[in-house]
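User: Show me a protein chain along with its predicted structure.
Assistant: Here is one chain, sequence first, then structure tokens.
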Amino acid sequence: MTRNERIKAEIAREAARLLFEEEVRSYRDARRQAVRRFGPSVSSSRGPHLPEYAEIHTELRQLLSFYGGAALAGRVRHWRQLALKYLELFEPFQPLLVGSVARGEVREISDINLQLFCDKSEEVGYFLASEGIEFDEEGDAESARFFFEDDGIEIECVVYSLNERRHIPHCQITGKSLERVGYKQLKALLEAED
């Protein structure tokens, strides 16, 4: 193993540890903090020593599977049940669950990420208001995100145009096609766990 490969592996492990133990929210921040721990001799700029998010993700999955146990399984189940509730509620917007809850990698600071599809993003705001859900909104008509909480868990809804539902984007974290789970798939997953 070369020096760069060794440093890359150590940075990936440290970034995964930061995500797992110290509850750093993003892969970018975890990688940046992990690099800093190696001192000024290791640059945070792109280079052969800097791990991709997929490499950090692999390390995090190992930590979650080794140390997560019953607590992780219970958290995944609870968050998926909550996600199912909102997949059903947002049915008019053809919702899909993505991210850590879809992958079964729920940390205590994770959130539930939903993709919603409609012609005009303000339809989602009107819908949330009509359901009596207090929310925050970011972005504009082209790229809107809605945030609200339920049971202390943040739920983020990203709105896309209807024609984007057929396009499966690339996942920046896993390096593969983005895992997207609909209502029926999630219900079947939960039923299989019973």
